[in-house]
Amino acid sequence: MGKLYVVGLGPGDEDNMTLRADRAIQSCDSIVGYHVYVDLIKDRYPGKKTLTTPMTKEADRCRMALDLAKSGENVAMVCSGDSGIYGMAALIYELRGEETEPEVEVIPGLTAACSGAALLGAPLTHDFAVVSLSDRLTPWETIERRLDGAAKADFSIVLYNPASRGRPDHLRRACEILLRTLPEDRPCGVARNIGREGEGRTVLTLGQLRDTAVDMFSTVFIGNSATRIVNGELITPRGYRDV
Amino acid sequence: MGKLYVVGLGPGDEDNMTLRADRAIQSCDSIVGYHVYVDLIKDRYPGKKTLTTPMTKEADRCRMALDLAKSGENVAMVCSGDSGIYGMAALIYELRGEETEPEVEVIPGLTAACSGAALLGAPLTHDFAVVSLSDRLTPWETIERRLDGAAKADFSIVLYNPASRGRPDHLRRACEILLRTLPEDRPCGVARNIGREGEGRTVLTLGQLRDTAVDMFSTVFIGNSATRIVNGELITPRGYRDV
């Protein structure tokens, strides 16, 4: 019986991977994942078998990884960002069910809340909420309720999956919900293509964000009531300066 | 003029550091940080100057790092976990103010939301909120309001700084606020000493969590309405299985 590692690669290429993730992949016979992410790292691991599936075939991909491990291989199932946060780790455990084999180890990776915040300055120095705008698996009413609750409780907010081909207006709709509670001039930021070619950032207001087009490779940050722009950086102070 | 890297080390020792963080520290003349974290990694970087300050001297530590960089050294200011999330990056930018020198680069690291979740299973597969229970710099009323808002909006919740010598009962008080909205049997987890000697985990209910003692090296997870325990693992499904 082999072992299955569910590995978060962090954003972009191998540079944002942890030493632990790198060592785990090196120890495996095969790498399983969505083809875009496998392509980003496969040159670092010559001689490994790679198996890929399309984006919407998450359950197929996980079953393939579990079956390979059951057949005796050590398998690295790789995810962009973290392996848990909106990642595949839960599905692997669900599909394994009450069996104890194969052994599973979840290896965390840098999620876009961390890596996007670092690109924009330091917007998450205080309490924050992470919300995905994808309604593929979540009713839009649930997303609205979480946005509204996060704004009313003065969380900094990070938006994952702010847009896709099928839902180009989700970010505008989300901003309209937030603007019921938050002011037009609330500092915000967009991080794009983190750790990859085309990496970029924009610092802007919530009013401007409402009318801004973003793509599926973007992560969006909305400041809390203390967030401000210092020398072009999006900063949420924690109060250390005044101690 | 030198350059200042604000580096998140991830939890515990060097194993959870990214390749990018490792390379940045290698390129520096000196390492600045809280002594516990500098001690965890200094053997990996022989020949570097190390400068440490006590835990509550955050502003002194940041000024020391900025001054060193201004004097011409390349400096790695290291933080446990992420460098931004409850970290020092914002304070560095605040203290640098409107000056553009020294150059600052924030290098993200694995925060305890990612690493603790991986230890417990996969509790953060859906939207979540992160709240610190430390009232050293935040009024307790603000913390209560965020806990209440996160519970009402059905976020999974991660609690940082759930206890310290000065506030042993904060976790109990937080659980009592959550229990106004959430049921006693809501699945929860505690991750301890992540990535370090004494690493451990407990999966339990919110009612049990209320009466559990945790220390300052613990991170606490409260599930959302879909979270359940599968084969001992704390799992929040996203719904991929049903696609």
Can you walk me through this structure?
2 copies of one chain form a homodimer. Chain A has 8 helices and 13 strands. Chain A is of the alpha/beta class and 243 residues long. Chain A has 2 domains: 3-110, 3-Layer(aba) Sandwich (Cobalt-precorrin-4 Transmethylase, domain 1), CATH 3.40.1010.10; 113-235, Tetrapyrrole methylase, C-terminal domain (Methyltransferase, Cobalt-precorrin-4 Transmethylase, Domain 2), CATH 3.30.950. Chain A has a 5-stranded parallel β-sheet, sandwiched between helices. The first copy, chain A, has a 5-stranded mixed β-sheet with strand order 7-8-11-9-10, with helices on both faces. In chain A, strand 12 and strand 13 form a beta hairpin. The interface between A and B is large, with 80 and 80 residues. Strand 7 (128-132) of chain A pairs antiparallel with strand 7 (128-132) of chain B.
Per CATH, the architecture of the largest domain in chain A is 2-Layer Sandwich
CATH homologous superfamily annotation of the largest domain in chain A? Tetrapyrrole methylase, C-terminal domain
| Biggest sheet overview of chain A | 5 strands, parallel
Distance between the termini of chain A: 55 Å
Helix content of chain A: 25-40%
Q: SS-based structural class of chain A?
A: alpha/beta
Share of residues in strands of chain A: 25-35%
